[in-house]
Amino acid sequence: MQDIKQRNIEHVILVGCQVNREDEEFEQSIAELESLAKTAKGKVVGTITQKREKVEPSTYVGKGKVQELVNLIEETEADLVIFNDELQASQMRNLHAECGIAVIDRTQLILDIFASRAKSREGKLQVELAQLKYLLPRLSGQGLALSRQGGGIGTRGPGETQLETDRRHIRRRMNEIERQLEAVVNHRVRYREKRKKNAVIQLALVGYTNAGKSTLLNRLTKADTLEEDQLFATLDPTTRQLHLPSGFSVLMSDTVGFIQDLPTTLVASFRSTLEELKEADLLLHVVDCSHPDYEQHERTVIKLIEELEAHSIPQLLIYNKADQKTDVFIPTHTKDSIIMSAYNEEDLLALKVKIEQALKGMMMPYRSIIKADEGHILAAARQETMIYTQQFDESREAYVIEGHALENTSIYSQLKERLLKES
């Protein structure tokens, strides 16, 4: 069999077991697994599926399918087998013995992609923590997978020295990472408190991976976030300032993309980053309306938002990639939603207007009179409120402004006082 080190791209075989799933949903899941494998620089050379009432406890699929898998490995000279579910340690051990090559599951594949995408210190620590949490209960069942040298899918991150250590060393490393992440979390909390004190509005882009969140962030804020037609193209959160049509400025954050069956270890490790969602004033839920399984993607994200206890935050649904949508697309929500393309300037302006309308509903209207010598108040009003009309009254030598402002802010109190004094 060809040595995997001689290849730039690993040849992989996908294996899935259809249990209590509709045919279409299962097919989409396998297609997504293939996309994940390609994102991890793998080439799919074969796929094996089986429909069962329940998975085989010892080998996940039945004995006949295991033999079929062994034959396919020999035929294709595959380097790696990827299963579409999370395997138990015993299943992985038995499959290693049968296949003779490395076997990983969907969770390891996703963790591997995250490991290759993480750029910031926090991101790298979070991925390593998730990998170690996954690895710890499976040490006895890893066998061949842990003996692979020279990298490859499912081996990035902690590295082979970490994988060969005992449980005590791994727990020590996990404690160390958690201490380092705690310092980052405390810094984030202080930043959030400062932001709230300054009455800065925060928007958070959420959505299924590859829905176009980073593209939207770049087009709206002129940021330079990585854009790729791949799953999990960006991992580390990015925050930029967004200027709305009224001149009002808000902060917009890009977040890690969600995916069906997102590993629980990953959700737990990234909780400090995902906590940003709970602090947002408005969630911008981006859906790729050109994807055949867009409804499932939408439901997956809504479910994860609920699990993070952020479902009470107002949401604006953005059906993105309208230039690629098919005739079968029907929006599941017509209220508080917009169908658009991130590459259309008119659509981007319409989205800004829609965001402004959503924020306006959270604010209080005001009409205030500001003396000509109170320039600092006028400047604060322009920066911290949405101004719609501004006129200079020569008889009063003052500006008359109308707009919307957050109720529990000092600028709103000052504007109310000036209106009362002149009434």
Q: What structural keywords apply?
A:
4 domains; alpha/beta; single chain; 16 helices; Rossmann fold; 4-stranded parallel sheet; 423 residues
Describe this structure in words.
Monomer. Associates with the 50S ribosomal subunit. One of its GO terms (cellular component) is cytoplasm. GTPase that associates with the 50S ribosomal subunit and may have a role during protein synthesis or ribosome biogenesis. It is found in: Cytoplasm. This is GTPase HflX. With 423 residues, the chain is of the alpha/beta class. The chain has four domains: 106 residues, GTPase HflX, N-terminal domain (Rossmann fold), CATH 3.40.50.11060; 59 residues, no CATH class; 161 residues, P-loop containing nucleotide triphosphate hydrolases (Rossmann fold, 3-Layer(aba) Sandwich); 55 residues, 2-Layer Sandwich (Ribosomal Protein S8, Chain: A, domain 1). The protein contains 16 helices and 13 strands. The strands form three sheets. Strands 6-7-5-8-9-10 form a six-stranded mixed beta sheet, with helices on both faces. α1 links the parallel β1 and β2. α4 runs antiparallel to α5 and α5 crosses α9. It starts with 9 loop residues before the first strand and ends with a helix.
